[in-house]
């Protein structure tokens, strides 16, 4: 069941709260995996997405990582949350949402990177100093928090 579609059928374009996750997948060089999105907002960003009805946040992280990267992730460590007015998005088709997002980090993954060419246009590991300029602010908060807590900058 597509939870967001179900809610949108009830409330139209009105603002709603959506809960989701972002995952920082780190390699052995302490570089972060970013996704260049093929859909809105067409920027580089963290792996992640919206929870489905009844789905745990951890299961959402695992599912989204598999869908967006082809990787199987494990040993998720809670990084923090973002929410509030800074997390408001108005989509091009008119839908409005306030995102409540939980961030996780992992260095444990297996599999091969897989780009679907639709939702994901490119996947690449970046060092902190080489991060692209067009990353959403809410994603940058998680990235900066991780590097501040780890005491390293890739």
Automatic annotation (TrEMBL):
<keyword id="KW-0378">Hydrolase</keyword>
<protein>
    <submittedName>
        <fullName>ADP-ribose pyrophosphatase YjhB, NUDIX family</fullName>
    </submittedName>
</protein>
<dbReference type="InterPro" id="IPR015797">
    <property type="entry name" value="NUDIX_hydrolase-like_dom_sf"/>
</dbReference>
<feature type="domain" description="Nudix hydrolase">
    <location>
        <begin position="16"/>
        <end position="148"/>
    </location>
</feature>
<dbReference type="InterPro" id="IPR020084">
    <property type="entry name" value="NUDIX_hydrolase_CS"/>
</dbReference>
<dbReference type="InterPro" id="IPR020476">
    <property type="entry name" value="Nudix_hydrolase"/>
</dbReference>
<dbReference type="InterPro" id="IPR000086">
    <property type="entry name" value="NUDIX_hydrolase_dom"/>
</dbReference>
<dbReference type="Pfam" id="PF00293">
    <property type="entry name" value="NUDIX"/>
</dbReference>
<dbReference type="GO" id="GO:0016787">
    <property type="term" value="F:hydrolase activity"/>
</dbReference>
<comment type="similarity">
    <text>Belongs to the Nudix hydrolase family.</text>
</comment>
């Amino acid at each position: 069941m597509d939870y967001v579609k179900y809610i949108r059928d009830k409330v139209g374009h009105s603002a709603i709260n959506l809960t989701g996750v972002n995952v920082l997948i780190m390699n052995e060089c302490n570089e972060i995996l970013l996704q260049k999105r093929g859909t809105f907002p067409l920027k580089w960003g963290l792996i992640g997405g919206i929870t489905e009805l009844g789905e745990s946040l951890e299961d959402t992280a695992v599912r989204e990582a598999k869908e967006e990267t082809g990787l199987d992730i494990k040993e998720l460590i809670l990084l923090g949350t973002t929410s509030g007015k800074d997390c408001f998005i108005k989509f091009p088709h008119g839908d409005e949402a306030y995102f409540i997002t939980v961030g996780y980090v992992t260095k444990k993954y297996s599999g091969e990177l897989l780009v679907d060419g639709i939702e994901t246009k490119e996947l690449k590991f970046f060092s902190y100093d080489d991060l692209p300029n067009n990353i959403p602010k809410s994603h940058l908060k998680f990235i900066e928090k991780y590097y501040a807590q780890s005491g390293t900058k890739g």
